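Please study the protein below:
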Amino acid sequence: MTPGDPLVPGSVNFRDTGGLPAGHGRTRSGVLFRSGNLAQLDDDGVAAIERLGIRTVVDLRADDEVAHAPSRVESLPVTTAHVPLFLGSVTSFFTQDMSLSDMYRSLAEESGAQIVTAIRAILDDPPALVHCTVGKDRTGVTVAVALAAAGVDREAIVADYARTEGLLPEWRNRDIVARLRQWHPEAVHLEELATRSPAPVMRAFLDDLETRYGSAAGFLTAHAMTEQEVRRLRDVLVEEDTVADSSAPAEKDLASNDSG
């Protein structure tokens, strides 16, 4: 946690995506939050979620993950959208010894419709919180696509993603790596999959979306999100500093801000 991040006791990797540069504007504070799971919230953590005014929780975990670690927000007036993002077992990525880059490409190829569903849930009734188990991969991809489609500057998206690595507790990383090593002793990518969020990986992911779909917005519309919904995504997430041409594409500043 760093100064400026909301204090939510019992949470991990909790932060507000507000304040990121987006062309002639910045992302709104208090609209889109991201985190790891909410299973360990104490009473103060639950109260903190309520004070933040969060109305929608987008849970990207699989059914077995939810059953094993249910969220502690049932008492709050929030709507939970359960949108499992992995089409299969989480452990399959470790079994296949897949790299992070390959995992993210797989998410885009196999779970595009689910990513659209998750982003629609953000739009339905913000403020919204998007989370998975640790808020790194499924959350990282979903939030990155949403921010990119809303016109947030490329390097700001990359930096927001890369922050996760420094927010995961060291004890957690040691424990999870040791446990996974017992099951996958020869895996090359195990530590990267479990604990890392390297900036070049997110840069490559966004580059891949641009190559295959023209933009993150193009990825969303290719998976049945309407152009009107993409425009609303920018309206919801971004506050303009100056009057911009509303007829311009949502990602009009992306290319000029892309240093990766």
User: Anything to note?
Assistant: The two ends are 26 Å apart (CA to CA). The chain has one domain: 15-234.
